[in-house]
Write a structure and sequence with these properties.
With about 325 residues, this protein is of the alpha/beta class. The protein is built from 8 helices and 17 strands. The chain is about 25% helix and about 25% strand. The strands form 4 sheets. Strands 5-2-1-6-7-9-10 form a 7-stranded mixed sheet, with helices on both faces. Strands 12, 13, 14, 15, 16 and 17 form a 6-stranded antiparallel sheet that branches. Strands 3-4 form a two-stranded antiparallel ribbon. Strand 15 and strand 16 (about 285-295) form a beta hairpin. Helix 1 (about 10-20) packs parallel to helix 6 and helix 5 runs antiparallel to helix 7 (about 225-235). The protein is elongated.
């Protein structure tokens, strides 16, 4: 079976690696254009492009696939490249571009998407973050037959995965990436035998995983500690939960719920020691155990306190200064 692959980040790279290991022919990869990244803001190829170049696979990086859009020349070149492959299917994983109807209609088996949620829950851009933030007990991967809607296509395969109590978006992403790679191989092998049976998504249970914005990182200390603990996990590694003290931004990378009751105003430091920094919230206390200040490294609470004095009675701010913590 011949596959065109469309994807950009590490989640997609894991799927492409699995497809290649399973012996599928991948004559063409579509990925986002190179973007500035790092402290020097040099152009950097996506993880998928890097793998494709390593495996000597042709790469196309159109800015759009809309023939009537802003970049019709990009779209026309991509169309010619896709049609030339005579691919059986196009596999999509976190690609980042909307696929117009001509793309959906080109491969014999259509376009199959690897989506990191149990559809119809968490359609959209950030399903892993939102599942953790919402306190979901489980998530999973759905292999979906793509249509023109936002993750509305028929479901082909689905497998559940438990969300652990200490899962961050980073750790859950890695497990879902492995699962997604395995499921897409299974789906294509079944499709080759004509054995896939598309199941329409139900109308009930639809939720949307809206894109994560940097301004969501600020910890609102009036929220319950349970909610804040989930946000810390959900925003690790991006954008990183944050607070501040006296104008100094602080990232909070690891935290857990402390005492059920906390006698203090929201944001007030109740205790600060090597075990963690205990902060009063709208309900209960949040214990911060790994932090980072601007220009510094991620440190355990005890090490952080050696270079950043915090004492009971001080109040952390829910408004984070514009200076970024890197």
């Amino acid at each position: 079976m011949k596959i065109v692959f469309a994807g950009t980040p590490d989640f997609a790279r894991a799927a492409l690696e699995r497809l290649l290991a399973a012996g599928f022919q991948v004559p063409l990869v579509l990925t986002q254009p190179d973007r500035p990244a790092g402290r020097g803001m040099k152009l950097q190829a996506s993880p998928v492009k890097q793998l494709a170049l390593e495996r000597h696979i042709a790469v196309a990086q159109p800015r759009s696939l809309r023939l009537d859009g802003k970049y019709p020349q990009d779209a026309a070149a991509a169309r010619a490249a896709i049609e030339a492959t005579q691919a059986d299917a196009l596999v999509v994983a976190a690609y980042g571009l909307i696929l117009p109807q001509w793309v959906l209609d080109t491969p014999r088996l259509g376009c199959l998407n690897i989506h990191a949620s149990l559809l119809p829950r968490w359609r959209g851009a950030a399903p892993i973050h939102r599942a953790i933030e919402a306190g979901d007990a489980e998530t999973g991967v759905t292999i979906m037959q793509m249509d023109t809607g936002l993750d509305t296509g028929a479901m082909l395969l689905k497998e559940r995965l438990t969300i652990r109590g200490d899962d961050t978006t980073g750790s859950l992403h890695d497990r879902l990436a492995v699962l997604g790679g395995r499921l897409i191989v299974e789906a294509l092998e079944i499709a080759a035998c004509g054995g896939l049976h598309p199941e329409p998504q139900p109308d009930e249970g639809v939720t949307y995983a809206h894109k994560i914005e940097k301004n969501e990182a600020a910890l609102d200390w009036t929220a319950p500690a349970t909610v804040l603990a989930r946000r810390v996990r959900a925003f690790n590694p991006f954008p990183g939960a944050a607070t501040s003290l006296g104008g100094d931004a602080i990232k909070v990378w690891v935290a857990h719920v402390g005492a059920a009751s906390a006698d203090g105003a929201p944001g007030e430091v109740l205790a600060a020691n090597a075990d963690g920094i205990h902060v009063a919230t709208g309900q209960g206390a949040l214990v911060l155990t790994e932090l980072q200040r601007a220009g510094g490294k991620r440190l355990a609470a005890g090490d952080f306190l050696r270079g950043f004095a915090l004492s009971p009675g001080q109040v952390l701010d829910a408004v984070v200064p514009s200076k970024e913590v890197r």
